[in-house]
């Protein structure tokens, strides 16, 4: 409820194609729950009603009636009061805001030279993370904060309305603490990734570093975080070390997510499923047993097309996972090393072109899939009760996100029914 008790209302009309991600029986029957010639009513930042434009007037009467009953004796406002903001979508498509469930946005410096060297033939290695650790440790809180604000504006401008941010470029108690603390200033979805890579000062004794992560570091970081993550990969942490970190995080009440199977087959997926992780991310190299284990679990497979694009590795096989019944999410993995894109439309285009996804599957995976990977039910869809996180496309259909790669199709964005300050960069 806004100031003075008045309900803030916004009615979006003339939506040519509405992607609800709500496969209700009266919708088109597909996973996107498409409604054509639709309208959406927003009340106090939440979706109040969704349906065909032609049904708005009669439904408004029902809303008015409900409101009179609920607020008997009070002065009240109805849908048709003058303060309802009515927005004509001009026949364009409206989709849920993107849910980017995997980013590493708190860091110093960049690694453009490493990228250029890779494009000239050098291989991607997990060890590159250490150069960002040095630049991050050298940055002040305010420098990191300013960078983060810039990235948040960049995300909003591209239609991302919910995003996760990981630590992992501090790798000391004090630096990891400040990274999760700064991340928490911009999102609720903060992940403690002290187990990103073993820092240079512990190169000779990685288990001593794991002791630090599960002890003092976790103790100061957990209060700012919702999730714990570990990079279970050759060159990073062994399955045993990863399990220690993830179990210690879970014991403090953090949800589990895992980086795994990025650079080769390994134990990341198995570990994630064993620990009931919300998501295992990368999933580029999977055995049949990995796919079967994911299909039988509640763990989402989060695919990160920007990584394979920027490292020239083979793309993960989304088709194989979807056909096996695995829930797939797409995320940017925005970070200075392996994937310096914050664009979900770019990820959608690549996933459709090179990972065997249909445009509908890719849009679902970047919205509802991301929400599933974060175990959120209040975002990632346009149905009554959820947060009004919306993206109006400068296009008649969601298909254009893949069909017109690289074209800025995001016309307007709302987060909780409000326009974010997207031009503040
Ligand atoms: O998700 N895989 C581990 N972490 C990042 C890479 C970070 C980096 O190279 O700086 C990733 O790809
Ligand atoms: Fe990552």
Topology:
Blueprint: E1 9-18, E2 35-43, E3 46-52, H1 56-70, E4 85-88, E5 93-96, E6 98-100, H2 112-119, H3 129-138, H4 141-157, E7 160-166, H5 173-184, E8 189-195, H6 206-221, E9 227-232, H7 239-251, E10 255-260, H8 268-274, E11 279-282, H9 288-295, E12 300-303, H10 305-311, H11 318-323, E13 328-330, H12 344-354, H13 359-373, E14 390-393, H14 400-403, E15 410-414
Parallel strand pairs: 1-4, 1-5, 6-7, 7-8, 8-9, 9-10, 10-11, 11-12, 12-13
Antiparallel strand pairs: 1-2, 2-3, 5-14, 14-15
Helix pairs in contact: 5-6, 6-7, 12-13
The site of N-(iminomethyl)-L-glutamic acid (NIG) has 13 residues, from α3.
Features of this protein?
globular, 425 residues, 35% helix, 14 helices, 7-stranded mixed sheet, alpha/beta, 8-stranded parallel sheet, binds N-(iminomethyl)-L-glutamic acid, 20% strand, binds fe (iii) ion, TIM Barrel, 15 strands, Urease, subunit C, domain 1
